[in-house]
Design brief:
By secondary structure, the protein is α/β, with parallel strands linked by helices. The chain is built from ten helices and eight strands. It is 37% helix and 17% strand. This is Arginase.
């Protein structure tokens, strides 16, 4: 069997965020040697460079959305880029960029799964549920809305990316590490029946049981997509994000999470988003993210 080929796809924009700087995320991950570290693990890694899209105009919201045309353009580029890699049999890693870009990546993975007749499971590792809409958002920042848009709840420019509305059903998501949800959003998440493993759940039953629950039912016919928002991690270990929320998983919990995903052998695609070098200390958050990604691709502490 030939080596699995990984394709790194940069999406350098903070178009959907409330702080500037996530546009520098792809370069920070490259500086932290993401490609080299995965090559050392025996993968064939190709860096596709960066996708292109409009500059961030940094304008206030229009009708409840900030930068909607630009967000749509970036997500269309991401959709095509990620779908192209999957079609060639490669495992794409999107180097973000802010989390609005998951509209493009997850819709591409969903399209690929529909064509291949495979089931999709999305692990959403995040401090936030990202299920906001124009009605509930206090900011209009679209990085708080990708899950809602993917589930068909949002503007047509975003829900229609990939040509299938909704791109996915809420039941494909398992959200892990959640600890900050706006009040109107809570109602929407409950109504959608989303599986949310918040920090209280992790505190009560531990990361091991949480991951067993989140990974239950995955089989050989399942494509597993991980959308890793770096603000999933506790800010004491990962300061380099725009929206820090205290009380996230610590280093060991995050490692266990990644190792248990790796154990499934089903990882098919990955987003790394919301890394913001402007808030970081000597690229420490990028290095930590790369360390965790190595675990996601099978590095474990002991020989098992």
């Amino acid at each position: 069997m030939s080596k699995q080929t990984i394709a790194l796809v940069g999406a350098p924009t903070d178009i959907g965020a409330g702080h500037r700087g996530a546009s520098m995320g792809p370069e920070a991950l490259r500086v932290a040697m993401i490609g080299e570290r995965l090559r050392r693990r025996g993968f064939d890694v190709t860096d596709r460079g960066n996708l292109h899209g409009p500059l961030n105009p940094w304008q206030p919201p229009t009708d409840g959305y900030r930068h909607l045309p630009e967000v749509a353009a970036w997500n269309q580029a991401v959709h095509e880029g990620i779908y192209g890699e999957l079609s060639q049999g490669r495992l794409p890693i999107m180097l973000g960029g802010d989390h609005c870009l998951a509209i493009g990546s997850v819709s591409a993975v969903a399209r690929h799964c529909r064509e291949q007749g495979r089931k999709l499971r999305v692990l959403w590792l995040d401090a936030h549920t990202d299920f906001n809409t124009a009605l509930g958002t206090p900011t209009g920042n679209i990085h708080g809305m990708p899950v809602a848009c993917l589930c068909g709840n949002g503007p047509a420019e975003l829900t229609g990316i990939g040509g299938h509305v909704p791109a996915v059903e809420p039941k494909v998501f398992r959200q892990i590490g959640i600890r900050s949800v706006d009040d109107p959003e809570k109602k929407l998440v409950r109504e959608a029946g989303m599986d949310v493993f918040d920090m209280r759940h992790i505190d009560e039953v531990g990361m091991k049981r949480t991951m067993e629950e989140a990974l239950a039912g995955i089989d050989a016919d399942t494509h597993l997509h991980v959308s890793f928002d770096v603000d999933f991690l506790d800010p004491s270990i990962a300061p380099g994000v725009g929206t820090t929320v205290r009380g996230g998983p610590n280093y060991r919990e995050a490692q266990l999470c990644m190792e248990m995903i790796a154990d499934t052998g089903r990882l098919g695609s990955l987003d790394i988003v919301e890394l913001n070098p402007a808030y970081d200390k000597r690229n420490a958050t990028a290095k930590l993210a790369v360390d965790l990604v190595e675990s996601l691709f099978g590095k474990s502490t002991l020989i098992r």
